[in-house]
Amino acid sequence: MTLVNLNSVLIPAQSGKYAVGAFNVVNLEMVNSIVQAAEAKHAPVVVQYAEDDDSRMKIEQIGYYATEVAKHAGVPVVVHLDHGHSFKACMRAIRAGYSSVMFDGSELPYEENLATSKEVVRIAHEVGVSVEVELGRMIRSGGKPLENPDITELMTDPKLAHEFSQETGADAIAVSFGTVHGVYKTVPHLNFDRLKALREAIKQPLVVHGGSGLKPEEYQEMAADGITKINFYSDMANRVAKHIVKDLNGIGDNIYIQDWTDRQLQYVADDLEEKIEVFGSANKAASL
C-alpha cells in the first residue's frame, strides 16, 4: 500500500457502492491522525489540503510531508489538493508531489470553468495525477453555523454535467445536491432525486463536498446513489476542538503545547474511524 491517485480508490468504490473518506488537514499532525485512522480500519483514504489554507502552511510543505507519510502507509493514501481555485495552485501541487488535484471553477462562468478544467486535466494526466472538477455551486459558511441552507437554485444541472464531464475528461466530478460547506444549524435539504439524475448523467465517480453534520443513513444513501468520495472536515474540527478545550481546562497551569497536539492526534483519529465505518470503506484496502 502506498501513495495512489483517485482512480485507484474511487473506481472500486463506484462499483462497490461505498464512499472513501476525504479528510482535510490544517497541520502536519492531522496527516498522521488520518492515516492512523485509515490503517486501524484497513481503509483507503484521501488526505487533502485546500488552497485557501495556503496562508497557514504552504501547499508544498503539506505535500512534501503527506506524500512521504503516504509512501510508508499500510493502506492506499491519496494526497489531494482540495479546492484549487487557480490553475497556478494546481500546478504547484503537482510539482510538490500530490497524487491528485481539484480544480474548483464552480464560481466561474461555465466556459471558463470548462476551458481551465480541461487544461488542468491535460497536464495532470501526463504525469499520472488524477483530477477532480466541480460543477454547481455551494454556500460557504466560513465556519459559522448555517441557517436554512436550501440551495436548490445552485444545484448541479444533470444535462450540463453530462457535457461537462465528457468534455473535461476529469477523473471525478464534484456535484451539488443540497450540501453546504460548514457547520449546520438547521436540517440540510438534500435532494437525492437530483443525485440519482446526476449519477445517470455522469460516468465518472461523484464527489460530495460539505459532508459535515449529516446523519449516518444520509451518508449511506449517498454512497448507494453514486457518491464515491465524501469530503468531511468542519464537524470533526469543531467537535475535536471542543473536546480538547474541555480537557485542557481541567489540567490547570501546568500545561504545554504537546498537551494539545497529543490530544488532537488521538481525537481526530477516533472521530474519523467512526466516519470510515459509516461511509462503508472499512476493510476495503485489502481488495485494492
Automatic annotation (TrEMBL):
Transmembrane segments: none
Cofactor(s), names only, from the UniProt record: Zn(2+)
InterPro entries: Aldolase_TIM (IPR013785), Class_II_FBP_aldolase (IPR050246), FBA_II (IPR000771)
Gene3D superfamilies reported in the protein's UniProt record: Aldolase class I
One Pfam family hit: F_bP_aldolase
Protein's name in the database: Ketose-bisphosphate aldolase
Upper lineage: Bacteria, Bacillati, Bacillota, Bacilli, Lactobacillales
